[in-house]
Write a structure and sequence with these properties.
This protein is an alpha+beta fold. It has three domains: 106 residues, 3-Layer(aba) Sandwich (Rossmann fold); 155 residues, D-amino Acid Aminotransferase, Chain A, domain 1 (2-Layer Sandwich); 82 residues, no CATH class. It contains nine helices and 18 strands. It has a six-stranded antiparallel beta sheet with strand order 7-12-8-9-10-11, sandwiched between helices. Strands 13, 14, 15, 16, 17 and 18 form a six-stranded antiparallel beta sheet that branches. A hairpin with a 2-residue loop joins strand 13 and strand 14. Helix 1 crosses helix 9.
Length: 363
């Protein structure tokens, strides 16, 4: 473990800091929330860009001008390597290894860093199977050939083909078996574009579709998702560990796909509702939302993750309720978007993040 000094430093790794070293600056609201919450745990907070560090022993960072007033101005400072680190680099940069040198240095120094790199979609399915929790996952296979995909369509009638390492609903395709050995293929985001893409393919044309996919893809049974107002619904369930290392529910956010939409991601045409809105609309259609089951399933998976990955602190699960009432995990988001959360959820998130940082530093 790193040598503890007073005060203890919580370093937040982010690219959202000025590039020109300006003398006075105010970070985004959530970073200020974390810094406020950190005061009660005896932590000082600094923000730094992990890709712009020349010397790890003396970070170029931003800290509050007045440590007791983190809502005021912040200024450039050189700080020692933090006692605990919250790595909050954008997911597309993290995937490309932007934070890899920081992670390596933290390991070398024995400094806890959250969140660690977590399994991708396929690895997550394998993890659930090993943990005896595959009941929460839809039937999923690694996509190999067009014949394999055709067999999955014959078995399940509707399947989703998705990249193992994707995010934001990008290149997620829904395939539906039609009469006459035809397949309807639809995507909300494909090839970097945010617009509906749809084709009806013959069985021979399906081989060309499979060849067009780049990288590793999965084929997953199409879930019979709960529908409200004719729109499919899933639930973002966000959890974070607290100052005791225990998982706490930050919030549940229902997301509704566009009519005939493939995914519920907001960028792909989905819509965010409050849980109260969704429950009221579902009741008008004689449907129940099993909130307790959603939370229990998410917490069970999160606890299994933290047993394996000791510094995991934040997870966002996209959870599904099938029309028959079964609760499933569609996928796990290691960096769930804060934009889905309301103010009370954000306050709780910041409180948990500061508390969990203190928990890790104490250990």
């Amino acid at each position: 473990m790193a040598e503890h000094r007073e005060p203890l430093w919580l370093g937040i790794a982010t690219t959202a800091v000025p590039k020109d070293g300006q003398r006075r600056w105010r970070p985004g609201a959530h970073y200020r929330r974390i810094a406020r919450a950190a005061l009660s745990h005896g932590l000082r907070v600094c923000l730094f860009d992990p890709g712009r560090q020349a010397v790890w022993s003396r970070l170029s960072a931003y800290t509050p001008v007045d440590p007791a007033r983190p809502d005021g101005d912040w200024q450039p400072a050189h700080v020692p390597f933090p006692d605990v680190i919250y790595e909050n680099v954008y997911v597309h940069l993290a995937v490309k290894g932007y934070s890899a040198p920081l992670r390596a240095e933290a390991r070398r120094r024995g400094v806890p860093l959250f969140n660690p790199m977590l399994p991708g979609k396929w690895q997550m399915i394998s993890f659930l199977r090993r943990a005896g929790l595959d009941r929460f996952a839809p039937e999923t296979e690694s996509l190999t050939t067009s014949e394999h995909l055709w067999q999955a369509l014959e078995r399940w009638k509707t399947v989703y083909v998705k990249p193992s390492g994707g995010y934001g609903g990008m290149n997620v395709h829904r395939l539906e078996l039609l009469p006459g050995d035809r397949v309807r293929v639809r995507a909300d985001r494909r090839g970097g574009r945010v617009r509906t893409w749809e084709r009806v393919l013959t069985r021979p044309q399906l081989a060309s579709f499979v060849r067009s996919l780049r990288g590793r893809y999965l084929v997953q049974r199409g879930l019979r998702l709960l529908q409200v107002g004719g729109r499919k619904v899933d639930f973002r369930v966000v959890l974070h560990r607290d100052h005791r290392g225990q998982w706490q529910l930050v919030g549940i956010v229902p997301k509704l796909a566009a009519v005939d939409g493939v995914v519920t991601n907001i960028i792909a045409g989905g819509e965010r509702w409050t849980l109260e809105q969704l429950e009221a609309a579902a009741r008008r259609e004689g449907k129940d939302v099993p909130v307790d089951q959603l939370v229990q399933a998410a917490q069970t998976i999160a606890e299994a993750l933290s047993d394996r990955y000791k510094t995991v602190g934040l997870v966002g699960f996209d959870m599904a309720v099938e029309e028959g009432g079964h609760v499933r995990m569609i996928e796990m988001n290691p960096k769930p978007a804060r934009s889905l959360l309301d103010r009370s959820m954000l306050e709780k998130l910041a409180s948990c993040q500061a508390g969990f940082a203190r928990y890790l530093a104490r250990r």
